Amino acid sequence: MLEEALYTKIHRLNQKVWEGRVNRLNIQMWLDNFDGTVKPIDAERKHMLFLLSNFMYFGSLQIRELLKAVFRDLYKYPIVHAIRKDNRDTRNLALIDGLFSGELSKSRFLGVGNPSESGCHLLYHFRQMNALPKEIFIHAHEIFRPKRFTGRWVLANKAIRRYVFIDDFCGSGDQVVGYCKQIIQQAKKQDPRVKFFYYSLFGCKKGVENVARRKLFDDVQCLVELDETFGCFHGMSRYFHAAPTEIDKGIAERICRKYGSRMMPGNPLGYGDCQLLLSFHHNTPDNTLPVFWWDEVSPDWTPIFKRYPKLSYTSI
Amino acid sequence: MNTFDGNPFNLTKANDYSDKQILNYWVDVPGENGFAGMIKPTSPMPIILLGGKGSGKTHLMRYCSYEIQKLRWPAKPTLDSIKTDRYLGVYMRCEGLNADRFNEKGQQSEIWSAIFEYYMELYLAELLLSHVDDFFNTSDAWQKSQTKLCRAILALFDTPQTANINTLKQVIGLLVSLRKKIDIQVNNCAISRRLNIPITVTRSRLIFGIPRLLSELTPLQDLQFLYLIDELENFNEQQQKYIFTLVRERRGPSSFRIGSRLYGIRTYSTFSANEELKEGSEYEKLLLDERLRDEPKRYSEFAKRLLASRIKGVSLSPSSEDLVASAVKSLPQMFEERNDENFWEAETTPVVSKFGEGEFPYFKKLRQNLIHAARAGRLRDVHSEQQIDRIIQKLKVDKYSLLEKVNVLLLYQDWSQNKELLDAASTISNLCRQFAERRPKSGRYFETYDHFAQDLLAQFFRESNQPQRYCGIDSIIHMSMGLPRHLLIVLKHIYNWAIFNGEEPFKSRPISITSQQKGIFEAAEWFYRDAKNKGQDGSVLQESINRLAELFREVRFSDKPVECSLCSFSVDLSKVNTTTKKYIDLAKKYSLLIDISGGQRDRNSMRVDAKLQLNSLLAPLWDLPIYRRGALPLDPSLADAIFDPGQSENFKRLLNARIVAMNAPFEYKRKLSRTAQRELFTH
Question: B468 vs B232, B399, B447, B460, B527, CA distance in Å?
C-alpha cells in the first residue's frame, strides 16, 4: 500500500512539476539498479521510491521566471535604488529609466564556465526573458584584449563598470572561485573601480558563503538558497520528519552511500557531500545524490534524472 | 514537451473554448432532435436551463449563439442560411458584465436597479445589432432599408438622439458611447459617491423593439431573436428579478433561454406586483443533467460519442461520422473490464493466491466472533473450538472465495435470528453445493448471491487490502451522472495515469484496470475537494458527506448488511430540522446528492419519503458501490446528526446503534427481542 501511495504522489509531481519526465516503466528500470546489496531488495526499492517522491525539480517555466527575478531583484532594483537615492528619492520615471539604461550599457553579463556548460546556456534565456540587447553579453575572454605593440592583456572596454556572472547552481562554490579568480584579480589590478557580481539561481548555503568569504566578488547572491535541511541525510533533513513508519533514514543513507560509493568513491552522496534531491529542466547538478543521475558504464546504472556530464578531452 | 500535453481530455470547460472549439467539440444526444429538441431555439416559450456545474449549459447555449451559427453555415452568412435556422442567437455571459459593480457605494438600491436595467438594455441591443450588421453587411439590398431601420431604432429612445445616424454601425456606436458613459460613472462612483446618468430609454423598448423593427422593416420576418443569458447565478436577486420581468413581458419575435447553476436562482419574482414567474405558462424549465440521467441509454450513447470524438480529435461533421461511429463501437475494448462471465471465480482467484495456506480473513473474523460469543455463552449450540472448526469446515468451498463469503453471510443471518449454528452451517453447505452444481435462479442462496455478490466481493477486496474495482466504459459513464464535464475529467485522469504507467491509451492494448482505478480515484478526490470551495457551507457539506458515506461504508462492510449496493437513503423531510433540510438541499444543488424521482415508499407507513443518492463519482473515496439498489431509511435524528453540524456530536452514537444489529454478536436485536418477550409476559 505504501508503494502505491508513493507512486500516486510521484504521478502528481510528474504531472504538475516534473514536466512528465518519468513514467512507471523508467522508475521500475531505475529501481532495478538496487539489487539487495544493503537490505532486502523490496526494502531498498521502497526507500528509494520514498526519496524519489521527495525529489525537487525545476522545469523550464520556473527557470525562466527565476531568470527574470535575477535580473529584476538582484541587478536592477539595487541600481534603481541607488539612482533614486542620488536624486533626492525622485519618482521621475523618465529620469530613472534614462539613468538605468546608462548603467545597463556599462554592464556586461557572462556565464560561469565553458560556453557549452549550463551557466552559459542560461544566458540565452536570461536575455530573452529580460528583453536585453545582445551587445551586453560577452565571453570571459572578451573582458580583456591584447595591447597593440606590447601584447599585454588589458581591459577591453574601460567604460564598463560592472561584470555580472550568472550561474544556475552554486554547490560548494569551488568551481566559480576557480574559474573567476584570475579574471577578477587581473581586472581589478588594472582598474580597482570595476565591480564583479556573482548571481546564482540556486545555491547551497555553505557554497554561497564560501564564495562570499573569498571577497573576490563585490556582491554574491543566490535566489533560492538551500540550507542544511535540504541535505537528504543531514541531522536537520526536511525529508524524514513525517516519513511513513516503514521508512528509516539510516537505512536510506546506507543504501545511497553504498551504491554511491561505487560511482563516486570520494563523494558517494554527491559532490561536496551536498546530498541534494534536485534537478533542473536542463541538467542535474552533481551535488545531487549520484544514485539519481549516474549514467556511466562503470558501474552500469540506469538514472532517473540523467545528468549530462562535463566531459573533458581526456575523458573522451 | 510534457507527455501529458497530448491528453485529448485536457479541455473540460466550455468557457475556455474558442468559438471554433465550441463547434468542433460539439456532440449531440441521439434521437428526439438531439439537444435542439431540449432547448427548442425556435420556440417562443422562454426556457430556464438549470444544471449542475459541468452539465453542458454553456456549451449548449454558446452553440445556439450567432457566432457559432455563422461557423455552422458553409460560406458567408446569407438570408437563406439564417432562414434555415429560423432564429438568431444573442449570447451573453452574466459574469462578463461585472454585475456586482451596480451595488452600494452610497446609492439607493432603486437607483442601481434603474441604472442596471438601462445598461442591460443598451448591452443586449448592441450585441443584437452587431450580429445583424455582420449578417447584412454582405447584402446589397440591405443598404436600402438600413436608413429607415436606423431612424426607427432611434425613435425608440425617450430623448431625441442625434439625427445624423444612417447606418447600423453608427447606431451601435451610439449605444457603445452611452454604455461607456455609464461605465465611467459606475466605476468611479465609489470615489465620487455620485451618479448622474440620464436614462434615455424605457425598460425593454430596445430589447423587444429592435426585433420587432427587424421583423417589420427587413427581410427577417418569421425569425426568432433569441436572447441567451448564461450564468444567471452571477446576478443578485434584484438583477434576476429584472431578467424574469423581461421574460414575463416578452413581446414580438423575441424569446429567452436563461442558463444557471442549480443553486443560482435567487428568486422567480418579477416587478409585476412581485408576482412569481409561472412555470408552464410563462416559461419552461429544463433540468439538463437530470434529463440526461433519466435517459441512461441516450446519455450513454451521447457520452460514448463525446469520448470518441475527443479520441479521434475530430468534430462530428458528416464526413467524420463513420470515423467516430467506429470509435464508439470499439470504445468498450479500449478499457480493460472485469470478467463478468464467471466473476465469482475470475475476480477472486488472483487475490486468493496471496493467502497461501493461511486461513482467509473472513473465516478468521468469523472464528474470532464465534469464540467470543461461545465463551460468553451467547450461542445456543456452540460451546467448543472443535464445533467452531466444524462450522467453518462446512462453509468452505474449494477455489470459490465468493461463495464462501455468501456462506458466511448466510450463517451470520441465521446467527442474528438465534438459530442453531451447527445445523445452519450444514444447511448452508448443502445450499451452496446445489447452487454451484445447478445454478438455480431462485431460492434463498440464489437471492443472497444475487443481491449481495458485489458487496461481498468489495468486502473480499477490502479484507485482502486490494483496491476496489471501478472500471469499464459503462461504469465510467454511469459515474459521471449526467455531467459531461465529470466524464471528461475522469477520462483526463485515466489518460494521465495510463501514460504514467507506460501504456499507450486508445492505440493498442486496452487501458489497464490499474490506470482506470487510479484515474477514477483522482477525479473523485477532485470533486470532493471542489465541494470545499463553496465557502463555509462547503466545509459543512463536506463533513456531512463524510458522515453519510461513513454510514454507508459501515453498513456495506458489516457482517450482515441490511441493504445491498448501498449508496442511497430515504428520509421523511417533514420531520428533519431546518438546518438538515438546508444542507440536503445544498448538497443536491452542488450535485453531491442526486434526487431520485419518485422517492421511496416507507415499508411500515406507506408514506413516500425523499430518496437521495450519493453522487457515484464520490463512491471510490469510501469503497462504495456506484450502482444503486437498496436505500437505507434514515430516521430524522440520524439525518440531523449527519447534515446538521449542531447535531453532529450525536452521529457516532447513532451510527453505532444502527450498526450494532448488523455485526456479530447481533446484541441489539437480541436485546430488543428479549425486551419484547418480557413486555409480552408482563401484560
Answer: 40, 20, 23, 9, 19
